[in-house]
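ugh ok fine here u go
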Amino acid sequence: IFRVMDELEQRLAKQRFLHGNRLAESDIVLFPTLTRFESVYEPLFHVDHKPLDQYPRLIAYMQDIAHTFQLENTVRFDINIESYYYSPMLNPENISPPVTATPML
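structure:
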């Protein structure tokens, strides 16, 4: 995961989107993944080698997509947390969700 995130960070230094300056399907797929990273993936799946704030270009990219396509109000951290943390299949150990999720949007 972090090798790919490092690669994406480098790629975004040279271009606006993942495959140039035009939005692609991969950008649409990556956006919700990034919005869930710190509130769900990091604590629940222990994906905590490097926090998202160590990737300034990925954060700027996520904020750019949210603002450009008016997605800020569509990102629901509460629903993300609820759907992952309260699922017995995804969270059989019943790990408690973080008290606050810091939105990067």
